[in-house]
Amino acid sequence: MLTPRTSAALCRARETSVQALPRNVSAAFVAAPQAAYGRPDWTHDGKDWPNRAHSRFVRVGTRRWHVQIMGQGPVLLLLHGTGAATHSWRDMLPCLAQNFTVVAPDLPGHGYTEQPANEGMTLPGMARGIAALLKQLNLHAVMAAGHSAGAAIALQMCLDGLMAPQAVVALNGALLPLAFHGVGRSLMAPLAKLMASNPLVPMLFAWQAADGNVVARLLAGTGSVIDADGAKFYARLARRSGHAGAALKMMANWDLDLFAARLNKLSVPLLLVVGSNDRSIPPADATKIQRSIPTARIIRMEGLGHLAHEERPAETCEIIENFAVELGILPP
Known about the structure:
Elements: H1 4-20, H2 25-30, E1 55-60, E2 63-70, E3 75-79, H3 92-96, E4 101-105, H4 123-137, E5 143-147, H5 149-159, E6 167-171, H6 185-197, H7 200-209, H8 212-220, H9 228-238, H10 241-253, H11 256-261, E7 270-275, H12 285-292, E8 296-301, H13 308-311, H14 313-326
Parallel strand pairs: 3-4, 3-5, 5-6, 6-7, 7-8
Antiparallel strand pairs: 1-2, 2-4
């Protein structure tokens, strides 16, 4: 959910909350019982988590991952975006499980997956983490689909030889550096690092997120209109400072300049699915990416925003399945 544009909204939200804070900040935290700090708690926050029956916790080294696995067939890896979790696939998972073995983890530090050290929150580090998880599960992805930053992780895995799928689907993929959006990395990276290094910032955001209007504004800023359940789970995670902090660390540690410079090395068939009303990632990015990647094709979902896959999950599943049939991953 967090991208260059929504991270700017987060900065503005932080400024507003700082201005609105009473003099006794500690008292304000205590007086906001709806704001829950620390990591999301599976027993409490996950009691009605979508597709909970298909959740499992897997230890890889010293870190515990939350992953949902459903269905039988070719292995399809689903990677959500920054600030989200497996709830983002709540309607797609059962649909895709009719033809695939679907593997959907919470990214490092997100949802119910534990957060690694800073190196593990870089783009290559997160790619290595997902690869280690798949190895622990003894699963090899035949196909991958990622939303926003999740698409970048899937392609980083391909570039680094950590995964060799027959196809990748980027759902409103965040694949270009901030400079392409008129925002210099020299400005945004230090700002994100400063925010991520201050433990009060995630707490302030979690405190402010107790007001549902804050999360509603962030979701509206994506250009999408999602259902009440989706908004509820985003709000629940936003009220956990550990989850918000992981999103900030991710933005602070990623370097898409190096990543984008390597995109022309990709040989895997790539489908760029673009919501025409995406307010987080400019839809025109897809055309720029297509120029760099000869194997890339574009499908536009008219009238939909950055969370298009949550707005029209059945249509998104159909796009993925049709691509799989076309490439011989699924039978006709």
